[in-house]
Amino acid sequence: MASISTVVRDITLVGEHIFDHAQVVRAEIDRFVDRFERNERHREFDGILRASHALVESSETPVEGLFYMGKMQTMTESVDEITKKIQALVEPKHQKEHEEYLEKVREEQKKYVDACREQAMNKMRSMAANR
């Protein structure tokens, strides 16, 4: 339900304004522009326009000429080189040392478990012998 002030604002037509809506339309446009600028939507809109122009320009660029001149090959090689550098950054630097450390830990844990198992077996044997 609309408030009274909203209704009064929307119905403020005097007799001569019944067919001349310029005042009401101007007020609505001003309110829209104020909200638009306050929310800084114009910056987002400008960004969308720039991106749109970049897409149009790229679609109008003759790609065949770039292939013939060898620029696409050079660009592809540059992208491949950058990709290799990025992949090198992703790989752990001390992976081999870490794997060796984990293998030593596994061996020591196995030795400890085997020693505990041997002790348990000896206790069971001595208990069985004492019966």
Keywords:
6 helices, elongated, mainly alpha, 131 residues, 0% strand
Structure at a glance:
The chain has 131 residues and is mainly α. The chain has 6 helices and no strands.
First-last Cα distance: 93 Å
Beta strand %: under 5%
Q: What structural class should be given to the helix and strand makeup?
A: mainly alpha
Number of domains: 2
Mean pLDDT figure: 78
Organism: Caenorhabditis briggsae
Protein name: Biogenesis of lysosome-related organelles complex 1 subunit 5
Family: Belongs to the BLOC1S5 family.
InterPro entries: Bloc1s5
Task: Explain this structure.
With 131 residues, this protein is mostly helical. The chain has two domains: 1-60, no CATH class; 93-130. It contains six helices and no strands. The chain has helices spanning 4-10, 22-38, 41-60, 63-69, 71-90, 95-130. The longest helix has 36 residues, at 95-130. The N and C termini lie far apart (93 Å). One of its GO terms (cellular component) is BLOC-1 complex. Belongs to the BLOC1S5 family. InterPro entries: Bloc1s5.
Task: Give the arrangement of secondary structure elements.
Blueprint: H1 4-10, H2 22-38, H3 41-60, H4 63-69, H5 71-90, H6 95-130
